[in-house]
DNA sequence: CGCGATGTTGAGATGCCTCAAATTCTGTGG
DNA sequence: CCACAGAATTTGAGGCATCTCAACATCGCG
């Protein structure tokens, strides 16, 4: 069984989810219906793990509600967020194909609902639908490019620039209200909570953002973007 | 046409290449023959580009001879090596599926020969062979995990540890004679030539490595590995 | 009301980059 | 075969960005 607790769902709900899901565009309604039919919903409370790095992969996961972060954590306690997934975004495109554990973990950042498709069925479906495969490859390409960009950024960009980059990326994805703590932003920027806070203080001083506990509001998106173009992929 | 200059090859040569190539294990001899039949060889002189970041992808590439590095370079001149590909290793697993340009470039580090398969034919072949697809997914999974590990390393590891990590990885892949300059090692470790050189000086002092211009010999693999476990994927 | 999580700011330590100069090696052409 | 140019190596000194540690304020939740 998957982690999390089973929750009822109607075929229609699931169809609507998959129909607009990332990677599933270009599929026929019939095929959407088919893959949605293989899925069930599971609920995860805030902070609950969806999967851990040592878990073998048994399901393909697609976020239906809430927000799930996919991250890598080292033995020394450093965490780097790899992906923030909201409704319609898959958590593990690779895992189903290999079944092997990876170094990534996923946990719900809020109460969340995740659609689960048994791995074997998902792979069978994917292989039968080249459009889906191509979409998956496109997404993986962006993921690899994004990871490599972050490596370059770690080398050549200062902390402030990396934080700005994270904020512009989040702005594009979630709008100007970003419900994350500075610690969470730090895990995206690859730095410490303190350094992130100092950067936020500067951006606040510049009138670019406002922030409350667990919330950043981007007041002047234009100014923020002028500090950094070329967003990441999160 | 592909970059590089066409070079003659026999069907047998190409069959032998694909038969042992990374990602092509588990395919029937007949299928190996088929994909090898779609390919031709191209030669690239030392320093010649195999593809550049702005190039749309027209071919799937597989190294037959020599060594090709796949890297990302930023506008400010920083280069990060993503992959060192020797005989039997593919350069671009994603590109053929999407056709779009990526942020990666590839160039020959020595005189090299690369097998080229027209993208459309390669994709058609891949989709018809789920074993190959699964293999590709496995490789991509390692690539993403490796990239994410490198990000974590940039945050929590010192330069010396990163260089050691690079050396252990190269040791596993190429043996104890590593024909790279310190500049090239720096691009793998995400640091500067000088810092790499200083680390090499220390390792030499510890009796772990010896080095000449463009060559590092690992004298005491055991000592090196004791400094760092869990290799990267290059 | 109190406790844990988050935010805030300061001061200090330091790892690493940057710049610079000198040396050694390679191979190329005269 | 030698001279020379270019690349790679080596080492030093200086500066600074960022992490670390620390103290304190603030918020929200049980």
Structure, explained:
The structure is a homodimer of 234-residue chains. Chain A is of the alpha+beta class. Chain A folds into two domains: 5-148, Sandwich (Jelly Rolls), CATH 2.60.120.10; 157-227, Orthogonal Bundle (Arc Repressor Mutant, subunit A), CATH 1.10.10.10. The first copy, chain A, contains nine helices and eleven strands. The first copy, chain A, has helices at residues 11-19, 29-37, 95-98, 119-128, 130-156, 159-174, 182-189, 193-205, 221-227, and strands at 5-7, 40-44, 49-51, 59-65, 68-73, 79-85, 105-108, 112-118, 177-178, 209-212, 215-218. Chain A has a four-stranded antiparallel β-sheet with strand order 1-2-8-4. In chain A, strand 5 and strand 6 (79-85) form a beta hairpin. In chain A, helix 1 crosses helix 2, helix 6 (159-174) crosses helix 9 and helix 7 crosses helix 8 (193-205). The model of chain A has no long low-confidence stretch (mean pLDDT 94). The structure holds a DNA duplex (30 and 30 nucleotides).
